């Protein structure tokens, strides 16, 4: 298939990653459900990475393919959306069972919809859950919640979902495992002279034009959707790596941070992209958190999170997940020093202002964490 001589390149150091695994790597031949044939090597890559102190979230397709084996009569071409959702519901348990058999650590199923990631409060909840699952030493396996989704199962949905999850958890790299070696300058299935592109510096129109449609009967995504996902990840400062998950020698090299495939570079660093977004995302009108001098010094000098103890007041109306301004109150008036995403609403911030983080739950009756604004969600003004 094309020019697939094994030339290796180094993968930059990473600490947290998302691995997207397509249906073509999990579905058994002949519509017989799921097969561990290619999943095993990918699981070994994940296990080696975790043992090295890294964190991995898997975004896995395959639920519908698994469901087809349970009720093959419902898998006819052009099946109604309700039938496909039913297949996804049947197949989810099989999909998690497949991944759990490879790991001694617990596998946690996380089902998301795009609405979960568009709604600010649900976005924060999803991110907090995923990060807590990683902190607990589990392996999160994410899939779209097809069973209750009101949209049809879209082309490449899990590719784009993987990019969104990568941004959600502040990943350093997005790995996309597919059944082709990477991005070629022509269709390698029809053009024997097609050449693999080891690196893409910019996803311009000419690069997107190289991508064709889906090449698999069981997958819903083609190369174009993978490039769209890479563009989403790149906007968040995350590199994307495309590789052939069917080639064990390729997967083994990933353990040693060596790639035979295509690396799509982000336009800017992950931290720079995050800070740019925080600096320029729209503020809620009049939404401010007033802090004392001690809190202002900790934010500016120590890179700390904003704790309730340093808060004097909340002004304006804002909800959990809204972008707010942070101001320090002095004799000459209020000075804006930062902006960030509040973990609590204005009413809640007012209630816990000046109190210790350990008192939050006793005051509010619930707890979204000890920070009013986490340092990852905060950018200093003038920096």
TrEMBL record:
Reaction(s) this enzyme catalyzes, per UniProt: L-glutamate + ATP = L-glutamyl 5-phosphate + ADP
Lineage of source species: Bacteria, Pseudomonadati, Pseudomonadota, Gammaproteobacteria, Lysobacterales
Task performed by this protein: Catalyzes the transfer of a phosphate group to glutamate to form L-glutamate 5-phosphate.
PANTHER family, per database record: GLUTAMATE 5-KINASE, ISOPENTENYL PHOSPHATE KINASE
Matching CDD domains: AAK_G5K_ProB (cd04242), PUA_G5K (cd21157)
Entry protein name: Glutamate 5-kinase
Principal location: cytoplasm
InterPro entries per record: AceGlu_kinase-like_sf, Asp/Glu/Uridylate_kinase, G5K_ProB, Glu/AcGlu_kinase, Glu_5kinase, Glu_5kinase/COase_Synthase, Glutamate_5-kinase_CS, PUA
Family, as annotated: Belongs to the glutamate 5-kinase family.
